[in-house]
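Title: Comparing notes on inverse folding

I've been comparing how different people in this forum approach sequence design from structure. To keep things fair, I'm posting one structure and asking everyone to reply with a full sequence. Here's the target:
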């Protein structure tokens, strides 16, 4: 039976930030459907207010899929903030989820804030990632923190491309803050539905979110965990084929 894979990106990111990962995944599962979504405040919905609760983001995603004539159950591939959405989705509508992959995420119930956002990045993220008006510098800063397996020249070229996305569909400062508030307010459940296969996936050298957060979730929820030892936070960028293979194997 054909599967519907729904890709959920992270904080202040839009579906274009997946780059060629969706097409690579589609090529690996040619009989399935691979869908990317934008959230309010990002991408095609950049002029809408971002929800300040993860539940509001999930409601918007579900409505988008329903508008496309889809009803699930879905295979969720969710990165960082997107994985918080997947957890919320599993909790409130488990019948709509056939499989969930939670990539490089965290939860306040299980991890301290200094693991959820590593302190070594605070100053640089504030100075060059939030308060700078130089869009290329902002994107390069984020990429240099979240990607490990690409050289600086490649990341600069990609930063220029991503700066173009930000110019076309800018995420406002208030929406950035609203999304951050939603992530901070999110309270993960003590357990997940046991009937839905769920996999924790981690970049073992994630320099944004401590990989201990993924290990802690796997322990707390008694879930399998797969770790790429060298990849960073943006695992779809660093190791796309490894991730695709892991997703396919995890759903078998």
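Reply #1:
Here's my take.
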């Amino acid at each position: 039976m054909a599967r519907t894979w729904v890709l959920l990106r992270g904080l202040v990111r839009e579906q274009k930030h997946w780059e060629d990962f969706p097409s690579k995944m589609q090529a690996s599962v040619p009989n399935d459907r691979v869908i990317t979504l934008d959230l309010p405040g990002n991408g095609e919905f950049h002029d809408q207010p971002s929800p300040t609760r993860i539940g509001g983001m999930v409601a918007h995603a579900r409505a988008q899929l329903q508008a496309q004539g889809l009803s699930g159950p879905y295979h969720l591939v969710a990165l960082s903030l997107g994985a918080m959405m997947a957890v919320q989705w599993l909790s409130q509508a488990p019948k709509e989820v056939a499989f969930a992959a939670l990539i490089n995420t965290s939860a306040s119930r299980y991890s301290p804030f200094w693991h959820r956002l590593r302190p070594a990045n605070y100053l640089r993220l504030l100075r060059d990632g939030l308060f700078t008006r130089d869009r290329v510098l902002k994107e390069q800063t984020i990429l240099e923190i979240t990607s490990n397996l690409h050289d600086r020249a490649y990341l600069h070229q990609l930063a220029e491309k991503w700066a173009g996305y930000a110019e076309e569909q800018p995420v406002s400062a208030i929406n950035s803050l609203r999304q951050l508030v939603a992530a901070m307010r999110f309270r993960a459940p003590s357990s997940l539905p046991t009937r839905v296969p769920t996999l924790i996936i981690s970049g073992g050298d994630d320099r944004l979110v401590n990989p201990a957060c993924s290990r802690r979730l796997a322990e707390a929820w008694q879930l399998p965990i797969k770790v790429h030892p060298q990849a960073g936070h943006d695992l779809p960028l660093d190791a796309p084929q490894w991730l695709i293979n892991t997703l396919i194997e995890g759903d078998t």
